[in-house]
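User: Hello! My lab partner asked me to get a predicted holo structure for this protein. The small molecule is NAP, SMILES included with the sequence. Please write out the structure tokens.
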Amino acid sequence: MNFKGRTVWITGASSGIGEALAWELGRLGSDLVLSSRNTEKLNRLAKAISEKYQINTDVIFLDLGNNATIPEAIEQFSDRHQKIDILVNNAGISQRSLLIETPVEVDRQVFEVNFFGTITLTKGLLPMMIKAGGGHIVVMSSVVGKFGISLRSAYSASKHALHGFFETLRCELSDKNIKVTIICPGRIRTSISVNAVTKDGSNYGRMDEGQAKGVSPEKFARRVVKAIHRNRKEVATGGKEILMIYIRRFLPWLYYILASRVKPT
Ligand SMILES: NC(=O)c1ccc[n+]([C@@H]2O[C@H](COP(=O)([O-])OP(=O)(O)OC[C@H]3O[C@@H](n4cnc5c(N)ncnc54)[C@H](OP(=O)(O)O)[C@@H]3O)[C@@H](O)[C@H]2O)c1
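Assistant: Hello! Below are the structure tokens for the protein in complex with NAP.
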């Protein structure tokens, strides 16, 4: 895929992976629509990228945790843009809490953003994509979208749910030229742990040690763009934590031993 002149909507563009993807796709000449709740940050980012790469940028407020506001964001998008070539469903929140201590309200909060918000946005944009003859949907899952691990119950479940939904979407809509690339990042050096929810719904507020040693978001963004370019169905990338996916698949007994011992922070 040639990214030049393509209209790409990136959710969660105000920070981390989304921000790095915005810079990378801007460098490749895509027109960018940047979304999240922090429009002040997005406006600064949009200005900096468009000045550097002479591309068109737009900012649309989006709160995936408040489903009722999503149709308004879609309406703004379709008022201002003729088409959507690539939707990058990147926004998400993580979790740092034991499931036995976590009320279902907090589980729902995680699902609302990571799953229901994401699928509401996607469903709202599909008619536009289909009408235009196709499009590419990118989904930011996680390594824990492939297996469960302590302290991530709702987070891991919400990412597993994305696989079920978007694999089905691919089955149902590939004849409409809708492509789906699911990315399973390992540890990427972003604020994901800082912004993770705890058992009472408040922010964890700390950079995990493992997170701080993760792959840089810029390097990771280049890998994501390569995966989109090659129309990869699913890509897991990060550091050695990716190995756990293969252990889970090929040596499940070892996964059961390791996973019950690992206490990720
Ligand atoms: N970093 C990792 O190691 C890692 C590993 C596996 C998967 N991932 C996934 O990668 C994606 C990006 O995370 P990141 O690492 O870049 O973390 P991050 O730095 O915390 O960025 C998260 C982004 O999501 C947005 N967001 C959060 N809640 C939102 C809401 N209610 N509505 C709209 N946007 C919302 C945030 O923007 P606002 O606060 O401005 O709304 C921010 O732009 C997530 O889906 C995450 O699960 C990350």
